[in-house]
Design a protein that fits this description.
The protein contains ten helices and no strands. The protein is mainly alpha-helical and about 190 residues long.
Length: about 190
């Protein structure tokens, strides 16, 4: 009888509800261990990206869903899998446009589209980024990627304007290797 009363008291004091455990709490330490083990192995990073994307798709109620998608995007980019990067970063910026990580996702997206030679999409997506995030720290990349895409489309005057803006913005960030690339692109426009 005492056991029953004690169980009843505990049950009632908890509101009668058992707190549901979020799968992200168990998954995150595994992800961190897999990431440390992967190092710079692009195939391991790609597999990790796939695993995170699967978590994002299957755990629709998890608090870690947004982080899972961002890391899936990030590690697809780190593994140089541009098709997966476009898919996952594109989904991230659509689902979480207000996230502080959206700027990085846009940058990864622009770079990947450029590498896939999808110049019209680069122009469209980087224009969205520029318009929606006018104060972004990484805006110089958007102008660089759009400028390069505009060059391939034969729109040289617009390309030059974007590349000049990119150069100034990236100089503030100390991205001197990027600036060298921009200078080379500008020389070709003369």
């Amino acid at each position: 009888m005492k056991f029953f009363l004690l169980t009843l008291i505990i049950f009632l004091s908890c509101g009668g509800k058992k707190e549901k455990k979020d799968p992200w709490d168990e998954y995150l330490p595994k992800v961190q261990a897999m990431f440390e083990e992967a190092g710079s192995d692009t195939s391991a990073l790609s597999a990790l990206s796939d695993s995170l994307y699967k978590f994002y798709k299957t755990h629709t109620e998890s608090k870690g869903r947004k982080d899972a998608l961002y890391y899936a995007c990030n590690w697809a980019y780190a593994s140089f899998n541009f098709v997966k990067t476009v898919e996952r970063c594109g989904e991230f910026v659509q689902q979480y446009p207000g996230s502080s990580k959206a700027e990085d996702a846009y940058r990864f997206l622009g770079y990947s589209l450029l590498n896939l030679k999808k110049f019209d999409q680069v122009i469209e997506v980087m224009t969205q980024f520029i318009n929606n995030y006018p104060d972004a720290a990484t805006l110089g990349y958007a102008y660089k990627y759009r400028g390069i895409a505009l060059t391939y489309k034969g729109r040289y005057k617009e390309a030059r304007a974007d590349l000049e803006k990119a150069k100034v913005m990236l100089e503030v960030l100390g991205r001197y290797e990027e600036i060298k690339e921009i200078d080379e692109a500008l020389k070709k426009l003369k």
